[in-house]
Amino acid sequence: MKQNVSLTVASLLTIVLFTVHLAHDFIYGLDAMTRAGTFTFLAIVLVSTYGTLELAGRRLGYVVTLLLGLLAAGLPVLHHVGGPRSAGRGFFFVWTLLALGTTGALGAVLSLRGLWSTFRRREAR
């Protein structure tokens, strides 16, 4: 049970950091806030939050949090680091990106572990 709590906390923290990071992108002009982009953002956050909270401990919940974790872990690697260059504004932008990657990787590892345990329980029957 402790593993599920850790996964839930890591996933929720990843979602919060993702929203902060996307707000940075909008504020600094790295991404345009279009209607389609806003709906896509809301859909991603909704599915991620629902998978984290309501599907916790189920196979589908582990799959949702695994995808969330993999995407978040890959974001610092794939992101075009064209953010703010000034030391005052740039620090929080880069820190958020690195923290997002770290919590995403942790969530992915915990999701894989939980997903593996669901398959092992099924084989034991």
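the 2nd protein, sequnce then structure:
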Amino acid sequence: MGGGSLQRSACTDTQAHQLARLVRQHYDAELGKAGLRTTQYWLLAEVLAHGPVRPCDLAEAMSLSPSTLTRNLKPLVSTGLLELGPGIDGRTRSVRITASGRRKCDEGLPHWTAAQARVHRLIGSRNVSALHALIEECLSSMSAGQ
């Protein structure tokens, strides 16, 4: 890299971002058929799996900043898929999935499955396994080096 020019293939951030963007496009296109974006489906599935959960715990579990979580929760709360209420001790808040949210999550599951299958088909099963292993290793290394 000379003269301040950026070579795409030499920038890890650019490479990771491009892959994430392409993968996300496949999931968003498929989940859009259920009226969801990938982040919305992911949030619904996490709250469904963990039951009522404090926003700070949900943000940590999803590796999101509290402000990003708040921004992503708003449309799901306003459409009645999630509700934000008092926590167990009355001092904290809790995110809960509603009956509508459960139905929407159920509606999204076959679309998520289709997106997953398509991405795996495009990448190749051996590459998917290698990619997952590499991502786990990188996440572990990056987390340890913070």
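The first strand starts at residue 82 and ends at 86. The beta strands are 82-86, 93-97.
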